[in-house]
Amino acid sequence: MNDKKKHTIERMNELGSHGRPFVFVIDFDFEKPLIFDVGDNYELLWKTPESSNYLKVNFQKKQVDWSILPVEFEKYRQAFDKIQYHIHNGDTYLLNLTMPTRVETNLSPEEIFHLSDAPYKVWLKNQFVCFSPEIFVRISNGMISSFPMKGTIDANIENADQILLHDEKEIAEHHTIVDLIRNDLSMVASKVQVDRFMYLDRICTNQGDLLQMSSQISGKLPEDYPKSIGSILARMLPAGSICGAPKPKTVEIIRKTEPYQRGYYTGVFGVFDGKNLDSCVLIRYLEQEGDQLIFKSGGGITFLSDCEAEYNELIQKVYVPIS
């Protein structure tokens, strides 16, 4: 465990034990974690379904210019083939492969933050904007719940919902992640159970609507959980839905296979109010690199995966939720 990670976990536990609210942003590798006061809005703007830390800015709505330059298919195929080797070797059976896509748009990251319609929104000044549809964990009255999201389809396809709900590859992938999250929750909670299984949400975007499949798993935390809030989160990271299974070996393969650093992408953001917590996975993520914008996206790879279909899903997820 690096010093930054250790210090952050200890600080979160300390704040939790005193019932003091805080906001956190944790990167995929837990090397650059950040903790903010809930009301601090100089560097970080955020919104959850229940709260936010900023005043609404009325940016003038305009036609969104959106041009993308995804990674070449051949480069993606090389990474895909490496993962298939590891799958057939028994090293992993589900791996979330992600890649960068360069974006050119007439919107600034701050404009995207304010104009986007998403359950969770995060803007870290000069670094990234994220408009996430995926809950990581919620803690309410001593119950912890996770909502892994696995399975995507173009909502405009005829009978899209039934196609997704009966797709052999997507079903197998979703079952795997639900089992993984059940195991993760069992490390910190008791009486873990699946409350909702394979339900669909519709996401509106500038590139057309998507259907996404999720499940809800919950468990009961110990009475004194606030004093261990940092330790609880750390035991469940990185989020299972954006790495794969088995988690430790799969993360090792990801680091060797992906051609870039994820950074805060696929990390987590959250708000602790002194007792309860709400958090999201940092997906649907646009990073600022100098004067360039890089969208990071991906999807789960299994032995049933088709390379071209997975590549197209990666591109399909490069959007902003601005209608």
Annotation, overall tally of beta strands: 17
- Secondary-structure-based class equals alpha+beta
Weakly predicted, low-confidence segments: none
Q: H/E element string?
A: HEEEEHEHEEEEEHHEEHEHEEEEH
Q: Give the full name of the CATH homologous superfamily.
A: Anthranilate synthase
N- and C-termini, Cα separation? 43 Å
Strand content: 25-35%
Whole-number count of domains: 1
Radius of gyration: 19 Å
The average pLDDT value, as a whole number, equals: 93
Can you summarize the main beta sheet? 9 strands, antiparallel
Q: And the CATH topology? A: Anthranilate synthase
Principal-axes shape call: globular
Commentary on this structure:
With 323 residues, this protein is of the alpha+beta class. The protein has a single domain, classed as 4-Layer Sandwich (Anthranilate synthase). Strands 1, 2, 8, 9, 10, 11, 12, 14 and 15 form a 9-stranded antiparallel β-sheet that branches. Strands 3, 4, 5, 6, 7, 13, 16 and 17 form an 8-stranded antiparallel β-sheet that branches. Helix 1 crosses helix 6. The protein starts with a helix and ends in a 7-residue tail after the last helix.
Provide key terms for this protein:
323 residues, alpha+beta, Anthranilate synthase, 9-stranded antiparallel beta sheet, 8-stranded antiparallel beta sheet, 8 helices, globular
